[in-house]
Amino acid sequence: MSLVNISGFWKCLLPVWLLLTGSAQAAVDARDHQAFWLWSGVAPQPVLNQAKTLYILQGQISRSRRDPSGNVHFIAQGMAIPRLRQGEVWVVYRAHTLHWPEPVYSQLLGQVQRWQQAGNPVVGIQIDFDARTRYLDEYTSFLRDLRQRLPAQYRLSITGLMDWSSNANPEAIAGLKGIVDEVVVQTYQGRHSIPNYAAYLPRLDRMGLPFKVGLIQGGEWQEPDYLKDSPWFRGYVVFLQNPR
């Protein structure tokens, strides 16, 4: 093959290469979605007017740096209890440890009850915890106990890491069935999309659990055609962030 022909060959392949390497990805536009995370310190945006589902941070559970004993505390965060009249509301808690003392459960469940009593359409709680794949058994045990404490009318959602579908023990994943109602798989870290997220998406069906895909506002994303064909796929949740 001549040098001229080789050059032409690569020119023909260039559009395919750009597609496969993700150059055709677009920034996540929150206006294309109807489910959002609303985190502490993030200003409300007009896009919230179209929301059908809100995941609203209300606290974190962690060991206090100010407490020399290293005790675990519930730290209230997020907006004051509003009065929302439409859609679904999930009350979200960021967990940095799974070793919760009894007062933490009381504070958390009391807060959820106050949200409900204010007339908000609360459907459940979400635990945001970065459970490493090899410790998923421990996380499942924690969630089983939490499910038993949670009033029956509330659903239980968790965030999940993408590599659960590839590297987790199948028995550990199976243990989540009947405990959690959904897993929202995060395709971002910090404030940016994870570069190789597309490599994990085909395996999400292996979990056998209802799942949503978490996106970061302004991050890179290209929706694969096969995702909407999955019987377990329940849509997207966009993490809103302040404009830079």
Distance N terminus to C terminus?
A: 51 Å
How many domains comprise the coordinates?
A: 1
Largest sheet: 8 strands, parallel, barrel
CATH superfamily: Glycosidases
CATH class: Alpha Beta
Instruction: Indicate the low-confidence ranges by residue numbers.
Output: 1-23
Structural class: alpha/beta
What CATH architecture would you give?
Answer: Alpha-Beta Barrel
Architecture blueprint of SSEs:
Elements (H helix, E strand, L loop, with lengths): L2 H18 L5 E2 L7 E4 L14 E11 L8 E5 L11 E8 L6 H16 L4 E7 L7 H14 L5 E6 L3 H4 L2 H5 L7 E5 L1 E2 L2 E2 L17 E6 L3 E2 L11 E7 L5
Parallel strand pairs: 2-3, 2-13, 3-5, 5-6, 6-7, 7-8, 8-11, 11-13
Antiparallel strand pairs: 1-12, 3-4, 9-10
What report would you give on this structure?
The chain is of the alpha/beta class and 244 residues long. The chain has one domain (26-239): TIM Barrel (Alpha-Beta Barrel). The protein has 5 helices and 13 strands. The longest helix is centred in the N-terminal third of the chain and has 18 residues, at 3-20. The radius of gyration is 21 Å and the shape is globular. The chain starts with a helix and ends in a 5-residue tail after the last strand.
